[in-house]
From TrEMBL:
Residues 142-154 have a biased composition (Low complexity). Keywords: Glycosidase, Hydrolase, Metal-binding, Zinc. It is an enzyme of class 3 (hydrolase). Its EC number is 3.2.2.20. This is DNA-3-methyladenine glycosylase I. It comes from Nocardioides marinisabuli. The lineage of its organism: Bacteria, Bacillati, Actinomycetota, Actinomycetes, Propionibacteriales.
Length: 196
């Protein structure tokens, strides 16, 4: 088994970062430094991240980041009620929009998940449900070989969301969501963002 890779020091700034963040200034590095692993607040922020993680499945995160402004526009700022009201004409409109990932199943999943988000309000809401699955003992990987892609908590969150009517919320996708929104600190030990 590979020993994996630890944080990589940027040649331009001497700052240690998770290896995927890139060695030079880039969109991925900016996302790593300013957003990844930081808590978000509110229903629309959680629905946005859940939706984008579903769209990312099978693609690079850099692709999704590049398209995020268009996703925010076409999904009405991820206002759950508005997206839940989308009809088949809206799905066709989105399928014709080259600015986003045009995958019918994922577009329809966004509509289904928005409706499930609205329904979840009666039980505390999407944010509370996701946050309730924070691990009691968060991972603290020192190298990429120690990083997980699923956990007991992401599996439990996936099952609960599916029970509540959500789709495209498998345990790997939910683990990525939990990392992205700071349900736990996802940064490698030694990364400048770890513990911040």
């Amino acid at each position: 088994m590979s020993a994996g890779v630890g944080p990589v020091v940027g040649a331009d700034d001497g700052v240690p970062r998770c290896p995927w963040a890139g060695a030079a200034p880039s969109t991925m590095r900016d996302y790593h430094d300013a957003e990844w692993g930081r808590p978000v607040h509110g229903e629309s922020a959680h629905l946005e991240r859940l939706t984008l993680e579903a769209f990312q499945s099978g693609l690079s995160w850099a692709t999704i980041l590049a398209k995020r402004p268009a996703f925010r526009e076409v999904f009405a700022g991820f206002d759950a009620e508005r997206v839940a009201s989308y009809d088949d004409r809206d799905v066709e409109r989105l399928m014709a929009d080259a600015r986003i990932v045009r995958n019918r199943r994922k577009i329809e999943a966004a509509r289904v998940n928005a409706a499930a988000t609205v329904a979840l309000r009666a039980d505390g809401g999407l944010e509370a449900l996701v946050r309730s699955h924070a691990p009691a003992a968060p991972p603290a990987p020192a190298t990429t070989a120690e990083q997980q892609t699923t956990s007991a908590e992401s599996l439990a969150l996936s099952k609960e969301l599916k029970r509540r009517g959500f789709v495209f919320v498998g345990p790997t996708t939910m683990f990525a969501l939990m990392e992205a929104i700071g349900v736990f600190d996802p940064h490698l030990v030694g990364c400048h963002r770890r513990g911040r």
